[in-house]
Amino acid sequence: MRKVFLGILTLLLLVSCGKRQDSEEGLAIFKYNESAGILTLDPIYAKDLPHIWACNQVFNSLVAFDDKMNLVPMVAKSWDISEDGKTYIFHLRNDVQFHEDTCFYVKSSLRPFDKLRAQGPRFVTAQDFVYSFNRVVDKSLNSPGLWIFSSVKHDDDHYAFTALDDTTFQIELSKPFPPFLGILSMTYASVVPHEAVEYYGDDFRSHPVGTGPFKFQYWKENVKLVFRKNPNYFERDEEGERLPYIDAVSISFLIDKQVAFLEFIKGKFDFMSGIDARYKDELLTYDGNLRKKYEDKIELITEPYLNTEYFSFYIDPNDELGPERAKAMRQAVNLCIDREKMLRYLRNGIGEPGTGGMIPVGLPGHSNTIGYGYDLKRAQRLVAENHLEGYLLQLSTVADYADIGKFVQSQVEQIGLQCKMEVMPPATMRSMRANGSMPFFRSSWVADYPDAENYLSLFTTSNFAPSGPNYCHYTNPQYDKLFDKALLCNDLEQRARYYTEMDSLMMQDAPVVVLFYDEVLRFVNKRVKDLGSNPINLLDLRKVKIGD
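and the corresponding structure tokens:
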């Protein structure tokens, strides 16, 4: 396989004359490291950023979000939504091709051997989306993306996905759900050809066939993954030039982040997302700026990230404090934390202080006036008035957030409460929070799709853990009613007002301590041009250029 790979690279070298060259390999190759590893390239299993980044180079969905979080056409060139908000009709492009692959020229159960198509492009049709979406909801495949179609009309055997003709695709919902269109941009909803899934079987995970800007070339697991330019990609730039510009994408899998960092500094990698505590002070000042010695080699790109970091309380109806004293305790903890100090000294200024509600900066509905600022005197007064002196708060966190846990512990103790911190493995924490075994614990929520409903659903009564993500067991009938109203509202501005009202109501009850809203932090080799950034931290390489 290695010889084949080297042969293909040699061929690409010969055909790349006239392009800007990578000085080491002769090709314009975008290189990055993925320390978390990649287990599959099947988009129905792309549940985290490492897998989403890789799969998004190979696959496309009906729609997509641009860097400004505007919903834009992708395989669907346009769409119509019925007045009742329950029927979506997508009008597909007729020029989107699947990657050229052996799978299209072999026998298939869905295509008799004597009807194999002639050599030529395999274009995407509406039936391909019916097939692809049915894979997501096929319970035997255990896709973590099954939930994205929970609002689609269905019974035990059938979901309402319909190909009206080759270029018209229809989805019917059981009830209106305004965020649904945005959900269809997710990697889970990528279009795949049935021929590839049938031909490769379980190996489709390691031999993906899609429509994206890059096509699969080589994967030595835990060592290197390579995609090469798709010469038939359907998108073009404003001047009519076919995208993408670069020749290939190379992903390495160095587990040690410190080693990967050193390789990045040497120029072996072009991109690094986020920053590890072990070298944050080497790269960044306390104010979050790039240190001068790296300014000629690296560009720092920052942007609000749709990620809210917080600590959660488990609201026990049988709490010995009683509901009012317990609420006062939670409010006091919210008020005693100096979030600006925490960000400056523990995160080098990365992030925005969490003085609003759960909805992060950048999403409609966010308000920085509905949360808690630093007010030590008010916190101490709440403790005294409710006779909470000496109350023991058990705080659970994971190793990566132990420094923030210690900071919160010290802040809580200065208002007269006791705080005991326990650091546990992530798997243990996930298990314990699901069954309500932790009174106060570290949490975070990264948006699956850019709509505040994604955050506010965490606190509805119907989503109580373990069957849902409401690990706080927060319940408020007024909140639930507002949530239902928002889901029936197609007016974006009115829906945002509902979201703000819900967030404000929830924060008054204080089931969480919002610590900060994260930022996308991208370190980019200065030879890379036009990488850009976005609030959901997607890696879009379609318009990237590699300079000298």
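(Above: one complete record from the training split.) The radius of gyration is 25 Å.
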